[in-house]
Design brief:
With 254 residues, this protein is mainly α. It contains twelve helices and no strands. The termini are far apart.
């Protein structure tokens, strides 16, 4: 039978009192080991076991460090990721909202950790089909990152890419196209025209243009994506194969 988190917290704290300074050193060491185990379980796809490990650590850290300590919040964030991996989207959203509320108050709305929490929340909303709320979060994060970090920072580019994808799900293809076209020249300049990330933008732009019934323009973008993927990843790579299929489909739309 596994030990309940509340019982384990009590045992650890009593041990710390009995052992004095050495005991207080042992608890953080134990937490680090538990977090490492939880992370390994999550990477292995053993998400329910990872959730259990994270819950124990969160319970201990809330008592030892307090509910608003950065380490406690990081562990809660990890717990939320384990919940999302099990498709427990409502619980994951609740955890991410709780972490976000503390970070906004303690760190401010423009802190990197706060923005990361908003991005995590957007992912939870996407998983539940709450696309309008997701788009609002991505727009807000993009606006701050663009202002604070600059338009070419990797986090800013990631936010623009996330926003474009969410707009595509909403079938707001003209808006999606605008975001992708804003992203493309920056990626080409920073990463090169044949980088897989650049080729992916060409591919997404081709899909977007096809949805807007612009098959000729879509085919040109798909061909660029295919050439880039093939050059860097090889003919047999799934991204290359996917791009070639899109080129063939668009060829048939003439």
């Amino acid at each position: 039978m596994s030990t309940r988190p509340s019982t384990l917290v009590t045992v650890l704290l009593i041990l710390a009192i009995v052992l004095g300074g050495a005991g207080y050193w042992l608890i953080p060491h134990w937490e680090s080991q538990k977090l490492e185990i939880a992370g390994t379980l999550l990477r292995q796809g053993k998400c329910a076991e990872a959730e259990g490990e994270y819950r124990v650590v969160v319970a201990v850290q809330q008592r030892r460090l307090g509910p608003e300590h950065p380490d406690t919040l990081r562990s809660r964030n990890n717990l939320a990721e384990a919940l999302r991996s099990q498709q427990k989207f409502v619980e994951a959203e609740a955890e991410h909202r709780a972490v976000l509320a503390v970070r906004e108050r303690a760190l401010g709305p423009e802190h990197a950790d706060t923005l990361a929490s908003r991005n995590n929340l957007a992912n939870d909303l996407q998983a539940q089909g709450k696309v309008e709320e997701e788009v609002a979060e991505h727009r807000a994060v993009l606006a701050v990152r663009e202002r604070v970090l600059g338009p070419e920072h990797p986090d800013t580019l990631g936010s623009r890419s996330n926003l474009a994808a969410a707009l595509g799900v909403q079938e707001k293809f003209a808006d999606e196209e605008a975001e992708l076209r804003a992203l493309l020249p920056v990626q080409e300049r920073l990463l090169g025209p044949d980088h897989p990330s650049t080729s992916l933008i060409h591919y997404n732009l081709a899909v977007c243009l096809r949805a807007q019934r612009s098959p000729e323009e879509a085919k040109r973008e798909a061909e660029v994506a295919y050439a880039g993927f093939r050059k860097v990843l090889g003919e047999a790579h799934p991204d290359t194969v996917k791009a070639k299929k899109l080129v063939d489909r668009l060829e048939g739309m003439k």
